[in-house]
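Hi R.,

Here's the chain you asked about this morning:
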Amino acid sequence: MKKYILAMDQGTSSSRAMLFDHGRKICGTAQQEFRQIFPQPGWVEHDANDIWQSQLAVVQQVMRDNDLDGSDIAAIGIANQRETTLLWDRKTAEPIANAIVWQDRRTAAMCDALRSQGYSARIQEKTGLIIDAYFSGTKLKYLLDHIPNARAKAERGELACGTIDAWLIYKLTGQHVTDNSNASRTMLFNIHQQEWDDELLAIFDIPSVVLPKVVPSSGIAAYTRTDLFGVSIPIAGIAGDQQAATFGQACHQEGMAKNTYGTGCFMLLNTGSNAVASHHQLLSTIGWKINSPTGNKTNYMLEGSVFMAGAVVQWLRDGLGIIHRACEIEALATSVSSTQGVVFVPAFAGLGAPYWDAYARGTIIGMTRGTNKAHIARAALESIALQSADVLDAMQKDASIPLKELRVDGGAARNDFLMQFQADVLGVPVVRPAVTETTALGAAYLAGLAVGFWSSQEEIAAQWRMERCFEPVMSLDERASRMDVWRRAIAQSRAWAPTD
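And here is the predicted structure, written out as tokens:
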């Protein structure tokens, strides 16, 4: 058997490569940040070539550092930042404009127009999504409408569109594919029939010829070009980062949930083979589709998306300069015993679930002359947990499945103060696994499952290990009081930006 699965974990602010052996041990890792582009307030872009070059560089680095070549790799799994959308030329494999990032709010007015035209119920029924600038559909329409000659070229079949998984696969293989989990985030994909939907394409005015082929999340999708690694390696796992993390957390059974603390914060609850319609402003989405000898199996999820989590810490570092490194935030926050009434609503890109307010903006409220940077740092960390508590409250109402525990992962899950506060405001145990890099691990598992590197989901689940459990200690009265103050602050942040 070949020795390793290679995971490409392409995130919002950095690209990573990780090598896993059969025991899911991390045998090599490399990471590289890339540029964030902010052309106007509320706009966020990436140069897709920055993404490709950084991703290829870390793959080459991790293979070089471990003295490997392509023959040592059994398969590649790809996890990607979701919803970020771009167009590229099929012949040259070059982007025709910057990618529009999932955080970008430029199409908020377009979403307002779709709602006013009465499309909300129909789009939610077919896609499980709420009309919002977060998703790919309006981003793609914007690119087609605003890049000179883009629409005409797209209709002639000269352009390809996709999320970042599709872009990386095109550069790696020349094939234009995406998986069900990423397709389900576009507002163009019928999650019940699992195909691009003609009615939705007509609503968004998207020519079908520009779209990628949809393949299972676990199954051989394409083979890499031989000039990249010396041999053709199968790309056998593809999933949006949050679905990959859920799979990596072994939340394979109905009723299991995880929360990932990355740039944003994303809570997913496995609802099994049923797409549960949300009545509390959550999303119903595809978790993964697995190609197996006994037939393809799809797992659905309920999801709540928080737009700003780790990005809040990044802003304290880069925007305010009150810390020099992200790892300093916990010591600063715990240097004071409370926020002294300061509440931080980090709605820099609007509010996600369960509010979906594209016009909300970041708010720090409750400051006095005694407020210092430690209080703001503590309020920033608390805001991550409080946003997630709002999501879980909506999730419990939708799913009617009492949550026994929340599995956590991502960079900020290593912050003990944050995890304890999260358990306190949720009222359920928060469980941190031994391997917190579950996004890359999930991509690896999906790929390895497809090529027989791991035999079954049961074998994968048996590898999961707990590192620490954070039990809630906050009283019910204090929890209710904290959530009441939080929601008062949320109300102050809403509908702040002009709607034009």
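One quick note: The radius of gyration is 22 Å.

Cheers,
M.
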